[in-house]
Here is the input.
Amino acid sequence: MAQPPEATEGPANQAFFREVEEELSYDRMMAFFRRWGRMVMWGIAACLAAFAGVLGWQSHLHGVAGEQSEAYAAAIKDVTANNLAGAPPKLAPLVTNANEGYRGSAGLLSAALIAKKGDTKGAISVYKALAADTSLDDTWRNTALIRQTLLEYDALAPDVVIDRLKPLAVKGNPWFGTAGELVAIAYVKQNKLDVAGKLFASIAAEPTVPQTISERARQMASSLGADVPSPTKDK
Here is the structure.
């Protein structure tokens, strides 16, 4: 903690008060993260769950075979009705035998259901396999990678998170908001507050980032003392 200089040292007093202000800003930022960090994680998870559903619907619109469409629709109906035990048997054949679209979507949904049952290790294993499956489009692989990282987050060293997700945490990438948020939090854990603040500010200013992520990023950037430019267009 900063120690106060002698009262007669004017320039030293100014330096002292600047140091105190920096420490207070850091304390406020960490208090904000401790309060809202878990909510950030759940917010990311909710966005990813919604995205997984969109992927399945897009596969349907692309004219996938009728049987696969019916099986996936039946699984979604079970999930909607909270019949979580009924969905996995319908998803299992799609995970192994369906075309790419339904295989990816069914895999993501299966992993989400496994996680919901409390089997975090099982869900991580499924996500890891999907992320490593080079026969799948990057859309599904990156979704799986982020969800895998989200489940592992508390146990991962910050540098592992950064190395894993930094390629996705760039402007122009569809996962910039989600991956960028996780990477920025990892920078905070490394005490690289300036780097984290700039990344949060960049996320907040990017018009393609979902509004919920943008608002959280703006709050975090402000807590870190980073300037947040306005988005170039409305979201």
Q: What stands out?
A: Confidence is low (pLDDT under 50) at residues 1-9, 16-26, 54-64. The CA atoms of residues 76 and 82 lie 10 Å apart.
